[in-house]
Amino acid sequence: MDILNLSFDIDNGFTLTTHWLVIVISFFVIILFLSYKIFYSKNRYSEFEIDEATIGIGSHKIKIKPNDQDIQIAYQLWVELSTRKIGLPIDTENDVITELYNSWYEFFKIARELIKAVPVRKVRANTSTKELIGITFKILNDALRPHLTRWQARFRSWHEIEKENNKNLTPQELQQAYPEFTLLIEDMVKVNKTLISYKELLESLVNVR
Question: What's the whole-model pTM score?
Fold first, then answer.
């Protein structure tokens, strides 16, 4: 049985013929390949469960199946958290509060811009994208914003005045003289733990398979 046969005549030129089994087998190979590609694209990433309680922003458990868009968002946010002081545990003895606030405020602005850049059609089309953005908004609005609203302006105002009157003190010594220093630090540490948990969540999403 000839699998392929190449012939030539002066009127028709070259003619390639093949056995019908080759055509049938080729057809099935193509179908199997396309089926694999479709299955792989749909099951590329495993289902991922997010427990809001472990982050400190709620009590819901959310199951998502992240797509490339979600992982890109998670990666960009994770980089911002991982390259700033905001993503590290606070050292209450040595960290400077004004520098921490600068880092928190910059992250707030950057995270908001990253989320705004996501096309609305992708948010509407993908439940997982909507859930990830929702969690990010909770981090900004339920964790960062309340602390910054309550403490930042008050502390900075006090700090500017006292810094001029106590130039002999180190930044750490000066901030410890703030009348509500203990309450401020307690709240700041609480927010910091939420941000670190959020960073770990993003890292897990980036590495999901």
Answer: 0.72
